[in-house]
Amino acid sequence: MYVQLSQRLKDVAIYVPKGAKLLDVGSDHAYLPIYLLEKGLITSAIAGEVVKGPYESALANVSAYDFNDKIEVRLANGLAAFEPADDVTTITICGMGGRLIADILDAGKDKLKDVDRLILQPNNREDDLRIWLMENGFTIVAEAIMTENGKYYEILVAEAGHMSLSDKEVRFGPHLMKDQSQVFQLKWQREINKLEIALGSIPLANQDDRAVIEEKIQTIKEVLDHDS
After folding, report:
1. 151: which strand partners?
2. How far is CA 5 from CA 12, 38, 45, 110, 190, in A?
3. Which of 137, 136, 147, 99 is closest to 120 using CA atoms?
4. pLDDT of 89-147, one tens digit each?
5. DSSP of 190-211, one letter per residue?
């Protein structure tokens, strides 16, 4: 019996190094660690969950898949789910806002020095997360963007190191704006469409408000037209 994983989490799984000891924060039903163990990609995992219901669901799933010896489910908030003695090498945090992910990392940042890789999948405020990584000694080594159920999701893979991002790179992603995938272009074209609708509802007399939106539209167009 194989666990059914969403495409979004399968895309996250691609970036988990083989043989990792994983901490999955906000693990929900523990599907990601179960999937990775089924595929033989990790040695063990901690599934951290702060909410009682999903925590109990994760416990039940780990038992059902007979991984009690490999996955430890812990009721804990954020990085409080692990200690240095756990030898965690990779942390995944998926399906939360970018600001919340940054806050979770910040609250436990002293524990991150021995962690090799962070794999983060924010569902908004990616810019906040990139700024936090830049300011706290991490560099983004890979990025991906995908769409599922009409929503866009970005994946940020970070490791220890120095990076300096421009304002555009903070907003659009240093790797994503370079790669210019079709999904990336669709996301930002949709954003232009939204901004143009907003612009149309602002009276011509409100020049300051119009200028702010016009500048946002212009910036997106510059990024999308970088190869033309």
Report:
1. 148
2. 11, 12, 17, 32, 27
3. 99
4. 999 999 999 999 999 999 999 999 999 999 999 999 999 999 999 999 999 999 999 99
5. HHHHHHHHHHHTS-TT-HHHHH
161: left (phi over 0), alpha (psi -120 to 50) or beta: left
DSSP 18: T
The gap from C-alpha 209 to its chain's centroid, in whole angstroms, comes to 32
Look-up of token digits 């030898």 = 87
**Residue type for position 172:** F
**Closest of 12, 8, 16 to residue 149, by C-alpha:** 8
Cβ(143)–Cβ(170) under 8 Å? no
pTM, rounded to two decimals: 0.94
Q: How far apart are CA 45 and CA 37, in angstroms?
A: 9
The residue written with tokens 């569902």 in the block is: 123
CA pair distance 226, 177, nearest whole angstrom? 9
Q: Do the bridges between strand 71-75 and strand 90-96 make them parallel or antiparallel, or are there none, so unpaired?
A: unpaired
Question: Which residue is it, tokens 């669901």?
Answer: 57
| 110 within 8 A of 40, measured Cβ to Cβ | no
Using CA atoms, how far apart are residues 93 and 104, in angstroms rounded to an integer? 9
